[in-house]
Write a structure and sequence with these properties.
Largest sheet: 11 strands, antiparallel
Radius of gyration: 24 Å
Strand order of the largest sheet: 4-5-6-7-3-2-1-8-9-10-11
Shape: globular
Low-confidence stretches: 1-27
Helix content: 25-40%
Number of helices: 14
Number of strands: 18
């Protein structure tokens, strides 16, 4: 089997050792206009990206991999966390340029452009990611791609779809994988790529509408060409039906910063799409995280992080999406069995869930308070505003998770609960494989706080106050 971690390491290490000119570009290259999907993300405003404290943890992850202390899934998990942290700590844009199905397997090509990263940091990281006994040696050769000098390299036995190439682009590295991944990145683009219609629908950047933080675009028609049933069958189909976008031609997520007079900036997220039954220039949309709504100012003041994201909570929608996510990888028989078990669960535990939901204000606030150890999207703290009085929300959530056969426990002394997400996690990741929650505040500041560490609850209690005695 091809060692993909080794491929990534060779790519970066050789890129550092063979510096190239940027071919006189006067602006960074955009993603390919015919990409199946692409994303861009600038984490510079996040506290975790600015905080130098992530460096020791990344160094520990590198040392763990380089020392050969882990194997199999554990090594892959640590490698994934390290790579995600390093890339997410820098502004970057990635694109999936081709996707094909052959012999029951998916083949792809694409590229990612990482800005402002030191060659030494990239080299150390990828060398650690690939540190496995018996990794094949790779050879390099210079090539010309779209008028640029580049490096192509690989090892005996690597298939063409795993071909690796690298080229510089101003102050960034562009790493390509697969046949044509790097070539498509530097090809000339048309004047009006399809995602410009979506950008126009949300309007230009401004102080009022917000400044662009991240974008994600997916061409669903291209995905259907690979597998016509991909977007119809569960679990993806069920999620799309829940969002009412199952007939979408393409879709785009737009994340923008919006400064406030007080408190942290708000992160607003819009979802736009075009329907196959309408003209391509007809763009529909909805807000997934709000910038303006009644009570937003009061709710977002709960957090002291570098940003706040106010998300409307539709319990039925979230349950539907959660159940579809739980079925990823299951065949028809297992999905049918899952549905029967879900119906039985609702019969037994619906009252507990309804009691919990009835206390909430219909929104939750996501923030980096306290700052997570690594700048990875998803390492966040959730604040759920609660009614000023009501039954123990933390205990109710514990009962809900426990009824789903999760490993749930209560720390009664500190009035917090936690759930273990990975039983046999590597020691270096063990402290980050639990989900913690507990109440903070009382009266108008009462909230349920959910986070990656017990520090999320203790930090919230320092600001909002201790919860009422039970």
């Amino acid at each position: 089997m091809i060692n993909a971690r080794c491929c990534a390491a060779v790519l970066v290490v050789l890129a550092v050792l063979v510096p190239l000119e940027s071919a006189g570009q006067d602006r960074p290259s955009p993603p390919p206009d015919d990409a199946i999907a692409w994303w861009s993300f600038d984490p510079s405003a996040f506290a975790a990206a600015q905080d130098g404290s992530r460096a020791p943890l990344e160094a520990l992850l590198r040392a763990t991999l380089a020392g050969g202390l882990l194997e199999g899934d554990a090594a892959d998990a640590v490698a994934g966390v390290l790579a995600a942290s390093v890339v997410s700590g820098h502004a970057h844009t990635g694109a999936l340029s081709s996707l094909t199905g052959e012999d029951g397997e998916i083949r792809f090509s694409g590229a990612v452009r990482v800005e402002g990263i030191a060659p030494e940091e990239l080299a150390r990281t990828i060398a650690a990611v690939a540190a496995r006994p018996g990794s094949p040696a790779a050879a390099q050769r210079r090539v010309t791609i779209a008028g640029r000098e580049a490096v192509e390299f690989g090892a005996d036995g690597w298939p063409a779809w795993l071909r690796l190439r690298w080229a510089s682009d101003q102050d960034a590295f562009v790493l390509g994988i697969g046949d044509g991944g790097l070539t498509s990145w530097f090809e000339d683009t048309r004047a009006a790529p399809p995602w410009e219609r979506h950008r126009a629908a949300v309007g230009p950047e401004s102080d009022e509408s917000g400044r662009r933080l991240a974008e994600v675009y997916v061409n669903l028609e291209r995905a259907r060409e690979v597998d016509p049933e991909l977007l119809n069958s569960d679990p993806i189909g069920g999620t799309f039906r829940a969002l009412r976008i199952s007939n979408a031609r393409d879709l785009m997520l737009h994340a923008r910063w919006r400064e406030r007079d007080s408190g942290p900036p708000l992160l607003a997220i819009a979802l736009t799409w075009s329907g196959r039954s309408e003209r391509p220039d007809v763009i529909r949309g909805t807000m997934l995280a709000m910038a303006e709504a009644p009570g937003v100012s009061e709710v977002h003041s709960m957090t002291g992080g570098s940003y706040a994201m106010v998300v409307p909570v539709d319990a039925n929608l979230w349950l539907s999406m959660g159940m579809n996510a739980a079925q990823i990888g299951d065949g028809p028989f297992l999905r049918s069995r899952f549905e029967r078990r879900s119906e039985l669960w609702f019969e037994r535990h619906a009252e507990t869930l309804q009691t919990l939901v009835a206390q909430t204000a219909g929104v939750l606030v996501l923030s980096d308070d306290p700052s997570p150890p690594l700048p990875i999207p998803g390492l966040t703290t959730a604040f759920v505003p609660l009614a000023s009085e009501g039954p123990d929300a933390a205990g109710l959530l514990g009962r809900v998770f426990g009824s789903l056969e999760m490993r749930v426990a209560e720390d009664a002394q500190n009035r917090v609960w936690f759930m273990t997400l990975w039983d046999d996690a590597p020691e270096v990741l063990e402290r980050y494989t639990r989900l913690w929650w507990g109440e903070a505040g009382s009266g108008p500041t009462r909230a349920l706080v959910i986070g990656w560490s017990p520090a999320a609850i203790s930090t919230a209690r320092e600001r909002l106050g201790e919860p009422a005695a039970r």
